[in-house]
Predict the structure.
Amino acid sequence: MRGLVLFDFGGTLDADGARWSIRFHAAYRAAGGKQSFAAFEKVFRESDRALGRFSGIEKLGFRAMIDAQAALLLARLPDGVALSQQNIADQFHSSTCAVVRRNETLLERLQQSYHLGVVSNFTGNLELCLQELGLMKYFSVVADSGRVGVTKPDARLFQHALTWPGLVATPAWMVGDNFESDIRPAAALGMSTAWLAPGNDKPPEAGIPTVRLQTLSELAAALDS
Ligand SMILES: [Mg+2]
């Protein structure tokens, strides 16, 4: 009987535990931007909210969405007008693609023993993005908060995937980089949890996660043990 492994998307399938704000800041600095991460992050959160309201967002593929977010960011940054939106989007996009290609080996292998799914706080266009990145073929269910109407850590977004017709959700794993929105709620639902946390942060609660990963590539061995 095949169990189920659910993944977060941002920071989990597209990067080893680095949030989009960190990766966009790195791309912005590489393009010549001068703002500190603290100042940048505030603007990033505004751009995230603007992206959620962006007209037609539910029809944007991955590259188009990255272009849109880079434009929203630069319009809000004091040095944004002098920087190349394309350079920033290119760097973010190519670093995503490199990690995604590496993770395909893992997904291909896991798919032989598990059903796979994604549970993500996203903007309604996650399936399109997964298609464009060549990942959609691995997943039996995609719970995109922008479509389901609830966001993690709300248990209902996990349950949307856990109760998907045709899936057997035992054993069920949740894999994610955010302790509060991925790991804690999944553990509360009785799932096993894999926390992708390459830093030295201690888990905020004893007894969870089930396993801790430095890189997503370690997941296959962790599930086997
Ligand atoms: Mg994440």
